[in-house]
Amino acid sequence: MTLALAGLVAACAPAASTTLPVPGTAPVLVGAHNDTSTPFNLVSVPALVAHRYDGRGLRITDTLARQLAFTRYAVAYRSGQTRLGPYVARLNIDGMILDDPARDRALRRLRDDADVVALIVRIDSPGGTTAGSEAIYEAIRKIAKDKPVAAVMDTIAASGGYITAIAADHIVARGNTITGSIGVIFQWAEVSKLLETIGVQMQEIKSGDLKAEPSPFKPLSEKAREVSNLMVQDSFAWFTGLVAERRKLPLDKVKVLSDGRVYTGRQAVAEKLIDELGGEEKAVDWIKKEKQLPADIKVEDWKVPPEDQGLFGLGLRITSGALKAMGLPDLVQQAQMQKLDGLVSVWHPSLQ
Q1: How many structural domains compose the chain?
Q2: Angle (CA) 263 278 293, round 5°
Q3: DSSP state letter for 303
Q4: 218 noted as active-site residue
Q5: Fewest 10 Å CB contacts: which of 93, 104, 231, 278?
Q6: Within 13 Å of residue 13, how many CA atoms lie on the same side as its CB?
Q7: The pTM is what?
Q8: Does residue 292 sit in helix, strand or coil?
Q9: Residue 5 in domain
Q10: Does residue 150 share a domain with residue 277?
């Protein structure tokens, strides 16, 4: 988010032009508020005026200077988010957590936004892929290096949703929120008996015994089971290590808590898996105290810029909304599950 011009023009300039110092070196064309053909949107300027930026200052014609005499601030943002002053950003993490480059770009924008002084992450997710959960955890931890981050658990924040939550420095949940499910699962359908019944036999030529194992087309060999279990246990050790580190709990206790069970918010507080019960207001109170922010600080949704939404993600959201409107939410879940290819950190009774 780049500040192109900020200033207060108190009176009309008698000279032919007025120069205001601004950072940068590259030429740029600044348009009016609704002009989308240029890299910037100039906010609060009543007319479209083209002018040159030559690295020494922004040269404004006398006509524009007269117009700016009635304008307090003229601010341009690259991201299209027109905000003035500090605020607390609210980021919503809903549904399945997948590896999502568009989401990661949006989080980098949020981290670099100087107006964002803190972050609230609202989570309503049963989890997702282990790799996707790892990516969002790392992105939130980078934000937390410079800005306080609090997590608010809504209906469910389990497994990969809990990984997202422990990236924050303070976790709030409702008493009946479902959380926990600390664990990793790797599952597949084995349909060899079905194929045998219908008279289909799979043939294969492969470079090694463990290539494409486990396979849905034959029973699992002991060697493939052993290798797959090693992979699951490696990811599980990573997950439990995160919990021990972030929640400041002994690893032995975390291992007891990590048998895959879910907890209510009340149980999670008792086990020190979260910090307190409540809603977003509790998270805001913690942030205000941590950052010593004014009582009237605003909390605003972080809007993902259109270029960071991704065509598939947008299409999935539209489709999900349509299916839910038709009373078919289970189809939404099944569609999301089709993308869970690999190690999974997820909990939901209908998805097991």
Answers
A1: 2
A2: 130
A3: P
A4: no
A5: 231
A6: 17
A7: 0.69
A8: coil
A9: no
A10: yes
Instruction: Indicate if 246 and 131 belong to the same structural domain.
Output: yes
Q: Name the token pair of 231.
A: 């992979």
Catalytic residue status for 303:
no
Measured between alpha carbons, how far is 211 from 205 in angstroms, rounded to an integer? Answer: 10
- Verify that 23 and 169 share a domain, yes or no: no
Question: Of the residues 206, 211, 272, 298, which is catalytic?
Answer: 211
Burial class (CB in 10 A: 0-12, 13-18, 19+), 89: buried
Query: Whole domain around residue 57: which residue ranges?
Result: 17-77
67 and 147 belong to one structural domain? no
Distance of alpha carbon 309 from alpha carbon 74, whole angstroms: 28
CA distance 84 to 8: 14
3-state DSSP assignment of residue 163: helix
Do 24 and 95 belong to one domain?
no
Q: Which helix (H) or strand (E) holds 18?
A: strand 17-20
Domain boundary among 30, 52, 77: 77
User: Residue 317 contacts by C-beta under 8 Å, 6 or more apart in sequence?
Assistant: none
- For each of the chain's 352 residues, which pLDDT tens digit applies? 333 333 333 333 333 333 344 444 333 333 333 333 434 333 333 333 344 343 434 444 444 443 433 333 333 333 444 555 899 999 999 999 998 888 899 899 999 999 999 999 999 999 999 999 999 999 999 999 999 999 999 999 999 999 999 999 999 999 999 999 999 988 888 999 999 999 999 999 999 999 989 899 999 999 999 999 999 999 999 999 999 999 999 999 999 999 999 999 999 999 999 999 999 999 999 999 988 999 899 999 987 666 555 433 333 343 344 444 555 454 444 444 444 445 665 555 544 4
Residue in 79, 125, 133, 159 annotated catalytic: 159
Contacts 24+ apart (CB under 8 A), 137-141: 137/163, 137/164, 137/166, 137/167, 137/242, 138/167, 139/103, 139/104, 139/107, 139/108, 139/111, 140/107, 140/164, 140/167, 140/168, 141/167
